[in-house]
Sequence to fold (319 residues):
Amino acid sequence: MARFVNVAAGQLGPIARNEPRSEVVSRLAALMRQAHANGCDLIVYPELALTTFFPRWYMEDQAEIDCYFEREMPGPQTQALFDLARKLGIGFYLGYAELAVENGVSHHYNTSILVDRSGQIVSKYRKVHLPGHAEHEPWRRFQHLEKRYFEPGSGFGVVEAFGGVVGMAICNDRRWSETYRVMGLQGVEMVLIGYNTPVHNPPAPEHDDLSLFHNQLVMQAGAYQNGTFVVGVAKAGIEEGVDQIGGSCIVAPSGEIVAHCTTKGDEIALARCDLDLCNSYKRTTFNFDIHRQPQAYGMIVERKGRHLMADGTPVPAKK
Ligand code: CDT
Fold:
């Protein structure tokens, strides 16, 4: 039996710092209705889709920081989205800031959930690759304080959902080949990724003109090298003075982009994804079981990176 998933990339335009959650949820619901009207099974929303991208600001007051976090999911303001999903029979991926209290200790994560067509959460993922810095760096035009506000998650799982094998990642994760390969090793057929990517990267402004190119490059490579669909979804446009890339797209296992958004506002891009197309790659060029050579890859898990001195030269090996 053919396995088709009709997917919507549910891109959001900017969210203002003072925009209430209820308004954001209304915008998400409007996109969900459009996706449903177009026959979708699943809509994918961006990273931190309920608030503005708050890591651009340095904050010290934990109570102020915690205002951006959800203590429960669904919570009072997000329940409406779950109810609508159940009513329409459509699933969704949602990125949000999670405050979890475990054994009396508070933990903060950059999280995504996958909700099935009955409105049940079937998978949760906590962002592994947290970019940016932990301390205030006043020289930057804006901050990127994910290392301050979140702790990293522990890994990349997959789940059987929507008739296939589905995995999740968040924003910076998409730049790392390990993200896709760990899920590829579990047979992933569709990787869902929300993102918030400023055009300007303060430590490397020479990359600014390449930000959309890099966005496509990593997702297309990840899809092809693992024989999987990839759905990448932006929060785009000028948000609190920071220009964020759009470029939400759906990538086939061939590495080709099969649908993409054309604006930097609230918009859906649609694709009918034949999950069996994954096999064309998983059983040939990227048949891992036949062709991978893990005995040659040990360094990938043994070594974090090459140690460099302040001037960029390698730290001499210990005798
Ligand atoms: N949100 C997030 O992870 N953003 C980062 C910005 C890094 S600047 C290259 C990203 O990888 O898009």
Notes: Residues 47, 131, 171-172, 175, 195-197, 201 surround 4-methylsulfanyl-2-ureido-butyric acid (CB under 6 Å). The mean pLDDT is 97.
